[in-house]
Amino acid sequence: MQLEFSPEEIAFQQEVRSFIAENYPENLRSVQDEGHDLSKEDFLSWHRILAKKGWIAPAWPVEYGGTGWTATQRFIWSEELAAADCVGTMPFGLSMVGPVIYTFGTPEQKARFLPGILSGDDWWCQGYSEPGSGSDLASLRTKAVRDGDDYIVNGQKTWTTMAQHADWGFFLVRTDPDAKQQEGISFLLIDMKSPGVTVRPIITLGGEHEVNEVWLEEVRVPVDQRIYEENKGWTCAKFLLAHERTGIAAVARSKRGVEKIKQIARTEMDGDKPLLANAFFKRKISELEIDLTALEFTELRSLAGEAAGKGPGPESSLLKIKGSEIQQRITELALEAVGHYGAPYFRGFGEGDNEHPIGPDYAHRAAPTYFNTRKTTIYGGSNEIQRNIIAKMVLGI
Ligand SMILES: Cc1cc2nc3c(=O)[nH]c(=O)nc-3n(C[C@H](O)[C@H](O)[C@H](O)COP(=O)(O)OP(=O)(O)OC[C@H]3O[C@@H](n4cnc5c(N)ncnc54)[C@H](O)[C@@H]3O)c2cc1C
């Protein structure tokens, strides 16, 4: 594994760094610095800048709007975005349904849906999970019955992230109740403004509106919005989950997270010394950094495999487990570092709040981020399920 960047890669890194410095929206930076929740428009402002530059979908094939970057360039890109504290782009269109559409869709479906994903004009959500069907996804019960050129869809989805903003959703529905579980499922694209679609908020521990219930009552969906064959949606579902897990390790963002804790611990005092001089605190930071470095090398090995033409394998489960645990430890340590300044924000500091912030800026998001990050070991396939995958696929148990 070659760890040094080539001169061309260093030049690319400089190009990326300057582009971010010159183009990242100032108003977005201040919303982030003050610890406010981000609005749909905040997310889209950066998305549109990247779309205009042609850098919005680095992992896509060039023919569909990708950049043609190597795995190393994509690694540099994510490192630079994290180092500059840029907001992430929404994964539901770009990393999930987009690759499904260009891999399994018809030419008409590609022409109809891919441009809106790239431009940001269409905001997508993921309708997989149902009450009672999360880890055991293939037991899902939302059903679609054929009626001429349409399906009539009835059922309930849950934990649907950002569905309150969504123009479109990709849904797994049961089209053959008599087939074996995985064989009777289809993959439908549903216009979220269709009559019969209702989105109800679920407010999370940190006081945020990030997830929702989605109710589907007699929703009419044209058959030409089904991707791939009827009853073969599980093939698309599995393909998408492999894409969802790559990148979930979030190494670059975690490295930035550790740096931020160190900055806080240099400022916050423990008696007459900075917190960073406290041996117990320093030890926790060091343990975190050691584990993060080990994770980074595992990710680099996985990238080297990808560069050599190997697709994401069971190691993506390993990256997910370690990455998500590290993300949680970072938020725990950040909350510890800000101490009592974290307390006023146990229920967040939302859009439109006019309370005067208390304590330093870096304290505002510590508690909501701590609560919010409990999700990382659950979503994208819970960590227990990832351990099952490793037991089966790697250890052969
Ligand atoms: C913040 C957040 C956002 C989400 N966003 C979306 C979204 O946008 N779209 C979407 O479709 N879904 C979304 N999800 C749902 C997510 O995919 C599920 O929560 C996840 O798959 C777990 O399913 P569950 O919640 O039904 O828990 P369950 O499957 O009921 O699991 C409960 C517990 O039992 C354990 N468990 C279950 N089965 C096994 C087993 N076989 N072996 C060992 N342990 C097991 C689990 O690990 C877990 O600890 C989101 C979830 C969260 C928390």
Automatic annotation (TrEMBL):
Keywords: FAD, Flavoprotein, Oxidoreductase. The keyword Coiled coil does not apply. Residues 125-207 form the Acyl-CoA oxidase/dehydrogenase middle domain. One of its GO terms (cellular component) is plasma membrane. Residues 6-121 form the Acyl-CoA dehydrogenase/oxidase N-terminal domain. GO terms for molecular function: flavin adenine dinucleotide binding; oxidoreductase activity, acting on the CH-CH group of donors. Its cofactor is FAD. Pfam families: Acyl-CoA_dh_1, Acyl-CoA_dh_M, Acyl-CoA_dh_N. Residues 231-394 form the Acyl-CoA dehydrogenase/oxidase C-terminal domain. It comes from the Bacteria. Belongs to the acyl-CoA dehydrogenase family. PANTHER family: ACYL-COA DEHYDROGENASE, ACYL-COA DEHYDROGENASE FADE29. This is Pimeloyl-CoA dehydrogenase large subunit. It comes from Sphingorhabdus profundilacus.
